[in-house]
Design brief:
Layout: E1 16-18, E2 24-26, E3 34-38, H1 45-56, H2 58-63, E4 67-72, H3 76-85, E5 91-94, H4 99-104, E6 117-121, E7 127-132, H5 139-155
Parallel strand pairs: 3-4, 4-5
Antiparallel strand pairs: 1-2, 3-6, 6-7
Length: 156
Amino acid sequence: MSDERLDVGDRIPEFELPDQNGKTFRSNELSRPAVFYFYPHDDTPGCTAQACSFRDAFEYFTDMGVEVIGISSDDVGSHRRFAEKHSLPFTLLSDVDGEVRSAFGVPKSLGILPGRVTYVVDASGVIRYVFNSQMRTSEHVGRSLKILKEIIQERK
């Protein structure tokens, strides 16, 4: 897997990762639009704010038929506790070795922190939007919803 950054028009890589329940998620089985959001760590202030923003908007995503998927290097147990503590209704994937983060080319912030990048992907696995902001955690949701509405309009 490479460190080349994926961008709009690129296809997401094929990967398999365990979710917070230990079930294997396979990217090649994705059959609907999705939001993949990479975040630094479970239960830290910014990551909790971001996850809770996705939780609070979850109904909007599901009404549009969109899957929400958070990815960090935390292990399955950490993800399970994080999801339970904050009532997160979406998938959290455990990328302990950072291979998927690397395959997407998610950059580090300040050279040391795992980056916070959101990818909006259409049903065929093509990236339609990328938002990279470590500090503007709540904007990841709003920007994703805006792009998804445009994608849905295109299909009509």
